[in-house]
Amino acid sequence: TTSNTGIVLTTGYRLSFVCSVLRSAPPCSKFFSVKHTADVQYSINPPRSEADHLSPIPLNDDTVLLFSMKKASEEENDNKLSVRYYGTDKKMLGTAVLHLTAVEISLDVDADRDGIVEKNNPNKGCWKWGPDGHGAIILVNCDSERRWRKLDHEQDFIDRESDLKDMTTMVLRTKGPAKLPEGYKLTMHISQGDAESIRFEILQQTKQADQDSLRSKYPLILQSACLSAEVLYRRGFAENKFYVEGIRFPDKDFDGLVTINLSLLEPIGPGIPETPIFTDKVVLRIAPWIMTPNTLTPKEVFVCSTTDNYTFLKEIRSFVAKSGHNLKICHEYMNRGDRWMQDEVEFGYIDSPHQRFPVVLDSPRDRGLVDFPYEKLLGPDFGYVTKKAQKEDVNSLDSFGNLEVSPPVTVNGKKYPLGRIIIGVAFPTAAQGRNMTQVIQDFLWAQKVQEPIALFSDWLCIGHVDEFMTFVPAPDKNGFRLLLASPDAGYKLFKSLSKQGHGNATLFDGVETETPRPVDDILNDEELQDHNNYVQSCIDWNRDVLKRELGLDEGDIIDLPILFKLVKEDEEVRALAYYPDVVNMLVLGKNLGIPKPFGPKVNGRCAIEAEVCSLLEPLGLSCTFIDNFASYHQLLGEVHCGSNVRREPFDFKWWNMEM
Amino acid sequence: TTSNTGIVLTTGYRLSFVCSVLRSAPPCSKFFSVKHTADVQYSINPPRSEADHLSPIPLNDDTVLLFSMKKASEEENDNKLSVRYYGTDKKMLGTAVLHLTAVEISLDVDADRDGIVEKNNPNKGCWKWGPDGHGAIILVNCDSERRWRKLDHEQDFIDRESDLKDMTTMVLRTKGPAKLPEGYKLTMHISQGDAESIRFEILQQTKQADQDSLRSKYPLILQSACLSAEVLYRRGFAENKFYVEGIRFPDKDFDGLVTINLSLLEPIGPGIPETPIFTDKVVLRIAPWIMTPNTLTPKEVFVCSTTDNYTFLKEIRSFVAKSGHNLKICHEYMNRGDRWMQDEVEFGYIDSPHQRFPVVLDSPRDRGLVDFPYEKLLGPDFGYVTKKAQKEDVNSLDSFGNLEVSPPVTVNGKKYPLGRIIIGVAFPTAAQGRNMTQVIQDFLWAQKVQEPIALFSDWLCIGHVDEFMTFVPAPDKNGFRLLLASPDAGYKLFKSLSKQGHGNATLFDGVETETPRPVDDILNDEELQDHNNYVQSCIDWNRDVLKRELGLDEGDIIDLPILFKLVKEDEEVRALAYYPDVVNMLVLGKNLGIPKPFGPKVNGRCAIEAEVCSLLEPLGLSCTFIDNFASYHQLLGEVHCGSNVRREPFDFKWWNMEM
Q: Between the CA of residue B582 and those of A145, A271, B467, B597, what are the distances in Å?
């Protein structure tokens, strides 16, 4: 009995293909022996001593012969393994001969995150956080190589070759004979779920006439409409390059991990399906969207120009120039009178070992500035992302003055090297409070690397966290201070002024549209004191949350003197800053652009400005007070609400976080 | 200046309420001193030496006075703290007096998982896996205290007092004066998201006339329509009991964790909202649904009675009786001719420190047995869960013969003390394969404690993993063996028979409806050999996956001699067992109920039975061959497909898993 079988054997890399030849031993076989060509190696299970291999070896029911090859074949069937079977009397019963072809196959990515696609990283098939972590990274291809076009990930072809920089390179490395034996083929495949998040193109290395057409040079091979595709086997360590692009960010229903599989299929016979005899896989994570706190270096400052904000614009231009930064003005044709630059967009970025670029998160707020981020920011290496919300779910808390991020902190030993996102919501005891819309909250939480903190901001009419808090850089401690609005500090200042004989000095001094109000009159207003007691208790609540969630102590916090007033709207009593809200400032490095408070003057100087300077200047900060009374404060916002800053990314790489 | 303020102070437990009194110091204050009643304690920040407390203490901008109380008050305002302020010359400028009422409040659950609600566990606010873990547990209240009624969690009232056993007890413990000071109140609240997963009732301790009405004795206080409710403050360590019930299992969009908050609200003034001055919280996890492998002790065996399965029923009854177990027969009026008991339901259980009961997962398959689980299994302490799927998404792979679970395993050091779930899907290289419907897959993965493995089962006509694999108990190694169907083992057996001169012995000997087929005829059928090569390669693929994902070696696997044939349906070529599929067995402890294979007879004994016995009996297993040819095999199923077993839960507690 001689049975000849050709078989492809994948060796080397991950899988040393094994086969228990002895399953097909002739009946009554009691012994066997093995012969093979130089590149074949084998072992017997249970193990035998070396000497036993020389003569016929006893064959039992549990005997398994495992074999593999040392290197890839040069030609098809260039190796051979034969097994002779013997009966009780060592009479030969038959021979089984296997003609062998060895192929090395490896699907490779930059699993060690150094920007280079290494060969067959043993950890490429799983993803681990941290400095000793592994697993490759994909960016959501959310920029646009051409302005005024779709996002790159919304079109299923490569528009410009520069788009490849935004994609993750994947290489199929093969070694073996010139072609695979007849009927064998390689396929690449992804799951339906993963196809909602990634898509990839292959570089066609054919020298076609239409080489110039990027569609034919880089055809799309895997996407949700096509989960599996045959890929060509190319001899040698051919650099078969694939380009993988993310098409959505991590979200509530998507943890960010995707798997790409490669299989070698073996033919069995006509009319019978092929079966996989080898599969390799790589696991990749979609990079999260990352926010940038006030402590990072500014790159660009954005404000709106409107028909009525000339004074503000002049002062902010001078402040930004003095700070040495770049001012970008969004003109009226684009902002349509909507001056709240802080509220329509949040600047962030995405990062990978191979590419990094800024990404703007567009708020579902969608007022006059609705088209600005898509039309003016999106472009080559400037990404865009938004989340659709039901119109009726969107309210003032969805403006991004209500979305901030802390500097890096360590809380009870847990490190947040990229800080923590801060949003404002209703306090849950409220039966009918306003909240940030769920789709945005879900998106923020799903990014994982800046675990959000929910503060209570619904006590404010506008309801934004930037109305009562901000962060400024500091040379000591954590490298920053938390600034909080403080009615208590306000009253303390006013009482002190009264005590010092300045009870007749007036708030709103120099403001055309307001009646100046003496300090003593304010101190005697019991209703205002009640209102501010309430506000202080709301801020105290947030102070406790911030201390706990950011690991701060009292020394990390500075209270700025700000009074509020309560107003009733829609049956709800909520708070507004009584005079310009000095905590709502623009932070450009050590330069602070602060709403000019128009406080009572003592010896010609505003006592509130003086107090703010005395609190902040010891930290090396420089305070510039900007008049935003008529054009912002009276419209219920201030300097911070009316500006926005794109900042340098963190030096820290998000994949090095310990999760 | 004397300012008197009454203030509630919560002490003891989690939060020692602090207040920086010095924020309200009169202007020009340079020194201060503190007096207080016996139960008050205070500290000054930055710290001063003990001696400094005796005389007026220097007051700086950063001076903070922190105070708390040692124990709860007996009466309102029974304690006092006064601060005197002095100017430069130590002349007294004023006194601030605080009248203090201390209350101890704690929201308590069984955070240490011993079945008892301890007092104020410091870890109650977060949830941790493992033997040193913490955090309380909730069951989905998915049983029904009355048969023929809704699931308990589908009705928003307590039907019978016994229902309380299925809920998690939460206790609000308070200590303090007879009532809270005017205007203060306690509220309990949950988030909208958590309200989709839990709901809770409170025990009203009033001795009302309608005490007998469970609706008024245990009114529902929190649910999705009501996220926040005031709860009564009751003096002393009153056992204010709440009963929390889960209303849905962990799923793709729900990680199983919920938070319950308690707040103490302080009034500020008329027309001004209250603010929270203290919040306590507990975090609980919904218990996952857990499957039971073949190695667990059987409790009940289920089979269907149909018009044509008398022989089968007689043999199975005798087998189950011999094994010492309880047989439950589902009669024709209930099964409507649908005999596939394995396929309509999967038995599992849910577990907590306070309660445990079986829960049946009802397949979306929904054929004749559709009403059986709801009508015959659901009842007191027998839960029910199902997942709705789109009708067009449901196919044969959604039957639960395609849902199994391994015994406990350790894989590369990672422990799976509850085993791993096993399902069958299409191999993803297939363009149009069948898969288990996504809602069921999502549910299984979300349970987390038995991390699923997806095998390739779409190569079979019926497409169930139980057609090619099962687990049996073993006295050694991992405590089990994996049995795999093996065409190679089948051919080896048949060749051996031929060699031994039994080439004329026939398969299907004694089967009325089949033509007996000689061994040599089978061996000469090259097409059948091709078919079985294909099947072997499909099973080998799964063998590799199982070895890798369950940490098995060849010695953990036993190959049973089974041949398959390929048939073409809907343009797809798929496999069926050629003779009764002996791996598709019913495992009751050491007793195996195996489909009678009707193999070729040697000396009057079926050679396949003999081979199976020789492979399994050395493990201490007892093989009983059951004739299911006409009533199951010819309808494309076998003993396992036609039966189901409810088993004892694991001794191991799922919350002790290391995740």
A: 61, 27, 9, 7
Cβ distance A187 to B228 less than 8 Å, yes or no, reads no
* d(C-alpha A41, C-alpha B240), whole Å: 74
B5: pLDDT confidence band, cut at 50, 70 and 90?
very low
Task: Give the distance from CA B378 to its chain's centroid.
Answer: 17
Whether residue A265 lies within 8 A of chain B, CB to CB, comes out as yes
Same domain flag for B319 and B419: yes
Same domain? For A301 and A188 the reply is no
A466 belongs to the catalytic site: yes
Hey, what are A167's tokens? Answer: 């994609």
Q: Do A27 and B269 touch (CB under 8 A)?
A: no
Per CB-CB distance under 8 Å, the chain B contacts of A189 are 428-429
CATH number at residue B83: 2.60.40.1860
pLDDT for A3 beyond 60: no
For residue B467, CA distances in Å to A364, A507, B429, B575, B636 come to 52, 85, 22, 10, 10
* Three-state DSSP state, B212: helix
Whether ipTM tops 0.90, in short, is: no
Q: Which positions 401-430 of A are in contact with B (Cβ < 8 Å)?
A: 427-430
For residue A659, is it within any domain?
no
Number of domains in chain A: 3
Instruction: Work out the number of other CB atoms within 10 angstroms of the CB of residue A221.
Output: 18
Q: Tell me if A537 and B499 make a contact (CB, 8 A cut-off).
A: no
Crossing angle of helices A526-550 and A487-497, rounded to 10°: 130
**Is the pLDDT assigned to residue A34 strictly greater than 80?**
yes
* pLDDT top residue among B631 and A227: B631
Name the token pair of B554: 């060849």
Q: Which candidate, A352, A482, A475, places its Cα nearest to that of A409?
A: A482
Q: CA-nearest residue of chain B to A274?
A: B534
Q: What percent of chain A has pLDDT over 70?
A: 92
Task: Let me know if A53 is a catalytic residue.
Answer: no
Query: Nearest CA of chain A to the CA of B253: how many Å?
Result: 6
Residues with Cβ within 8 Å of B211's Cβ and at least 6 positions away in sequence, in order, are: B217
Do B323 and B236 reside in the same domain of the chain? no
Alpha helix segments (H runs only) across A40-169: none
Q: Higher-confidence residue: A184 or B596?
A: B596
C-beta of residue B613 within 8 angstroms of C-beta of residue B500: no
pTM recorded for the entire structure: 0.87
Alpha carbons B215 and B253: distance in angstroms, whole number: 32
pLDDT in tens, B345-392: 999 999 999 999 999 999 999 999 999 999 999 999 999 999 998 877
pLDDT at A274: 84
